[in-house]
Amino acid sequence: MSETSGAAVAPHTAYAPVNGMQVYHEVHGSGGTPLVLLHGGLFDIDQQFGPLLPGLAAGRQVIALDFQGHGRTNDIDRPLTSANLASDVEGLLRHLGAEKVDLFGFSIGGAVALHLTITRPELVRRAVISSVSYHPSGDRGGNDEAVAAMTVDMLEGTPMLEAYRAKSPHPDRLQDLLDKLARYDEGFPGWSDDDIRGITAPVLLTVGDCDMVRLEHMVQFLRLLGGDVNGDFEGVPRAQLAVFPGTTHFFGLARTAMVLDAVTTFLDAPDPDEPERPAG
User: Fold this and answer.
1) What whole-number distance in Å separates Cα of residue 54 and Cα of residue 58?
2) Nearest-angstrom CA–CA distance, 221 and 40
3) What are phi and psi of 136, to 5 degrees?
């Protein structure tokens, strides 16, 4: 038995030059298709995925990054949009030499995962898309107004403010980040039903039962992806939906054991069989 057997292995941490930023990232574990973790707005790697990371990295490589202006990654003079953040993810993956990945994104990170799954299908093997709508009509409302009214003073005493001040290369610029989050994806009309129908990768959708996204919207999302079938007769589809009970948007990934079971079971499932070839 090696001296390190049973001991936690520290992740590899580094900064990568991407799109004029120094993007902080971590690589945990090894093996399998790399899983890329994409956090939500105002969060970072540790706050969003910290309790999940040991389970996710057991048996697979996990790549996690702090988005523009979040955590240890610096901000630049550029709006926050799904397209821009997706470009950052692509740049980081090129830097790391990763050609095919799984994605797990929450909220804004889920929007980035959806963007990549639609626009870069050759990059994505499987995608876990959590607590985000594909069209603004799927949101309950009130969230945009709350974010637009948010100030640094309102965050005093919260873990998010403490983490930002401790990690950010410019700890005095949180209001700039809040203002950018208030305008996130401004002008983007959302994805069409045909865009969602065109997704070829297997997708797991997750949502809280009292989340900011309407449950009926997530069911429609699932149907457009080919889910909501009688699996006993038709087989388990490529698209699946997990609804976490007693779960709000802010605490969307807080049920660690439940989230890990849903996500790892999905990621570890055999890939869908190729179509049968004609005989002869």
Assistant:
1) 6
2) 20
3) -55, -25
Which amino acid type is present at position 236? V
Q: Shortest CA distance to 125 belongs to which of 143, 103, 157, 92?
A: 103
3-class secondary-structure state, position 175: helix
Exposed/middle/buried for residue 96 (C-beta within 10 Å: 0-12, 13-18, 19+): middle
At 185-242, the pLDDT tens digits run 999 999 999 999 999 999 999 999 999 999 999 999 999 999 999 999 999 999 999 9
CA dist 70 and 45 (Å) reads 9
166-179: pLDDT as tens digits: 999 999 999 999 99
Degrees to nearest 5, angle at CA 41 with 19 and 107: 105
Distance CA 17, CA 92 (A): 8
Q: How far apart are CA 169 and CA 277, in angstroms?
A: 56
Show the tokens assigned to 236. Answer: 């388990």
- Is residue 263 exposed (0-12), middle (13-18) or buried (19+ Cβ within 10 Å)? buried
